[in-house]
Amino acid sequence: MGRSAELAVLRDVLEDALEGRPALVFVAGDSGVGKTRLLSEFAAHARERGARVLAGDCIELGEGELSYAPIVAVLRSLTRDRDPVLGEIPEFARFELAALLPELGRGAVPPHGPEPAEDSGQGRLFEALLWLLERLGEANPVVLAIEDLHWADRATRGFLAFLGRNLSSERMLVAATYRADELHRRHPVRPLLADLERLSVSRRIELSALTRAELSQQLTSLLGAAPEADLLERVFARTEGYPLFVEELVAASADGRGPLPSTLRDALMARVERLPAAAQSVLAALAVGQRLDEELLAEITRLDEVDLNGSLRAAVASNILVIESDGRYRFRHALLREVVADDLLPGERRVIDLRLAQALEAGAERVGMTPYLAAAIANHFASAGDRPAALRAAVRAADAAVDVHAYGQAAELFEQAVELFDRVPDAEEVAGIDRAELLARAAMDHKLEGNSARQETLARAALAEVDEQAEPHRAARFLNTLQDAQWHLGRGEESLATLEHALSLVPSDDSFERGTLLRSWALTMMLRGRNTEAIEAAQEALNIAETLGNVRLRCRAINALGSARINLGDIDGGAAALREALEVARREDFVSEQNSAYINLGDALHLAGRLPEARALVEEGLAEERPGNWVWLVILRGELAIEAGEWDQAEETLGAVRRSPTGNGLVNLDLRRAELALGRGRHEDARELLDEAGRLAADMDEPQFVGVLGALRAELERREGSLESARCTVSETVERLLAGSEQDVRLARVSAVGTAVEADAAQRARDLGDVDGERVALAHADAHLARMPGAADARLALEAAWSLVARAERSRAAGRADPGAFGLAAEAWTELARPYPAAVMRFRQAEALVEAGDRKAALVAAREAHGVATALGAAWLRGEIEGLAARGRLRLTESRRLDGSHDSGGVVEVEAEDPFGLTQRERQVLELVARGATNREIGEELFMAEKTASVHVSRILAKLGVRSRTEAAGLAHRLGLAA
């Protein structure tokens, strides 16, 4: 009733899905407003259109979540229906899906060895689920219906976020319902909805209560006749048009004309209280257990077969319970279950929880423990107040959650076990693990979930439980977890100190702990630009790995070794090492190491000037069958697209990273987006991103963050004329880079930007007649130039290009801008396949040629730069070039003469002393502007009105192609247009 508009939206979206345009639809509304009814009506329509409807509900289970609850329900329905697609699942996907439903994995061979604690396999599971949905959609479009999203467990929320980021051309529609009135300010589903509902594939339908006319239709349907006016008004006033309440009121008063219950709860309980006591005990068990079969109900209620069957029949006949396709019973509506559950006394609830937990545990011993069962058992033992059993079950459930990569839930369960530890006698024996290890494992699971702050807190708590002198290796392991959290939180110095302390505990042995720490040290030194130290540590870690025969440690050590070698200029040797690490990782299926090798090798090749090779490698990595959660590799793809001048692709790639990483990952993403915004000329966007990155990177000392942040911020300040601020940014950045790193390409970049800042400063000083200011700017420029590496080293192609930029900018600082120097820099960037910096140098070359009087050569350079800027969408650079063209009287595009021929020369002919087409009067006004005269002073000097002087000044600015009187004055001085 009253849902025709909403159904029309759903049907339209389904038609899009049929054509390969997937969608996410969220149906929101208060309890009892008709969300489930709408979804079931749409599901019937979807089946008529040939769609495969897969349905699953999220389960309310308090603090104990059932990981992937709706997804498990979908998989069960597929196995129950013996869907032929299940026989086509590839081995990697079959093994991953078997973690959720063991019967899917019969005969499956693990494609990889056991994952270490620090590796996340959630990405592989998500890829497997997406493969399955895509494959199902090839035969028939898929409608994935998820009810009660407000109860979604953390793992399900993660999968929905993954779907939102990865849907592209699948024949799929995801429809999810949620109670809007349940979403309080800190509800965990809120950020998920905020993320997903702004996607282009998303739709939101908000259900409101029925109108009086629609309510009249509902009552007519329920009563078999049109309601009397007074009944309609009373029901409408009482229910406010909520369909479920209306239905229950009518059921409670038989013909709808008797006394009406005052609340929805009373109406719902009226239906329950009419049942016999035995049936009410069955409802109580189901209110706690939610979905139970007859065997479990018998164990909980202790009813004999006759009484149990009679009770179930009465509850189904009263429209309170429904029977699912697998034979289990559940409440017809979640509100009915909640009302019955709320009516239970605490003691009644504890008895049911205990019996249910014991029955589930006994059943699991017969058929096998699943993550789903383990979580339910832990929850019911905890609710029953059986602390020893709850502790044991929480640890078991946490381990099971890790098996299905539900790391957030695992962390919460481990923390729940920690809280129980002090309240259970012989807790260590009961749990099978001590308190320190519980804390450490919770910390690792928070790491895999991306919660570095909680990881740090728990790692510190674990360390507090350990005597470093008695257990140095264990303490070293916990310290490694701590330093990892500190590093991801951007606290580089703390991370380094923690790592040094950990190494001091295991100073000279060949233990796995020392090898792991040395690998971490090598990675840390490499990222800080201290590559010689990185190579030494990586080599020692490699020796330990060889001694222990540990393939994973060997792979990681080779990775760090190769990256450091490339940074020192041994590109071929370093690339070979990284390729070896990549092959080992691929062969052994070390997913995180494979990811790391792709990122490090791709980044190293990019910084070595081999951009096409780097881009091909990144695409190879992203095309892997099981890429997992490779946010950094996706960001690297965006970064390389910026460098290659494919800005539209970069915009799309970086914009697709919808679930922003945290810590240094967020800094990385902000910097790439800021660089693109700066190139596009969106300066306010760039400043906002750089401000956020600056806050996050305040304590970082890695050149990849510090150097790029400093270079981008200084360039932004330079463009906006804040030269002193730009100079300070460059100075601070150089100081931070020199404090801990060897020669690095980012230092060269910052020094080149610094030289450009000083060229602007020197030029401004000359315009103002500030001799001291010019001398200071030249001294700073020389200092930047002195830090540049030799341009002859072919292994340092990127540094060489930045060095050429700095040398050319130094000539501009000296007041004798060298067109040849800027041309060499442009050619260097062109050879490196980086069009944007090449275009900037061509613009500077054109500017220098205009000042030298060679306007025809300037036109060639300006047109080349303008073409690139236009193609890229580089608004700022394009504006600068067009301003130069206006000042230099250059025509950037060909024009047609009156006789029909083309003027391909592009240089507007003017008298030498009047290159800008200024009239004699305008030249007089410009003279006074150059002296700093106001409009009033110009008027008094030249005997004209102040308003007339203002008009002249505006025309002069337009002809000169400048934005301010100060720029006009400086240009007039430089080109000899004024004394």
Mind explaining what this structure looks like?
- With 979 residues, the chain is mainly α.
- Among the domains are: 4-206, 3-Layer(aba) Sandwich (Rossmann fold); 212-271, no CATH class; 275-344, Orthogonal Bundle (Arc Repressor Mutant, subunit A), CATH 1.10.10; 670-902, Serine Threonine Protein Phosphatase 5, Tetratricopeptide repeat; 920-974, Winged helix-like DNA-binding domain superfamily/Winged helix DNA-binding domain (Arc Repressor Mutant, subunit A).
- It has 47 helices and nine strands.
- The strands form three sheets. The chain has a five-stranded parallel β-sheet with strand order 2-3-4-1-5, sandwiched between helices.
- Strand 8 (895-896) and strand 9 form a beta hairpin.
- Helix 6 runs parallel beside helix 7 (189-196).
- CATH topology group of the domain at 670-902: Serine Threonine Protein Phosphatase 5, Tetratricopeptide repeat
Q: How many beta strands in the DSSP annotation?
A: 9
Q: Please state the second-level CATH architecture of the domain at 670-902.
A: Alpha Horseshoe
Radius of gyration: 35 Å
Low-confidence stretches: 107-118, 895-904
Helix content: 55-70%
Distance separating the two termini: 85 Å
The averaged pLDDT comes out at: 86
**Strand order in the largest sheet:** 2-3-4-1-5
Secondary-structure-based class equals mainly alpha
Quaternary organisation of the protein chains: single chain
- Shape, principal axes of CA atoms: globular
Beta fraction of the residues?
under 5%
CATH class of the domain at 670-902: Mainly Alpha
The largest pleated sheet is described as: 5 strands, parallel
Number of helices: 47
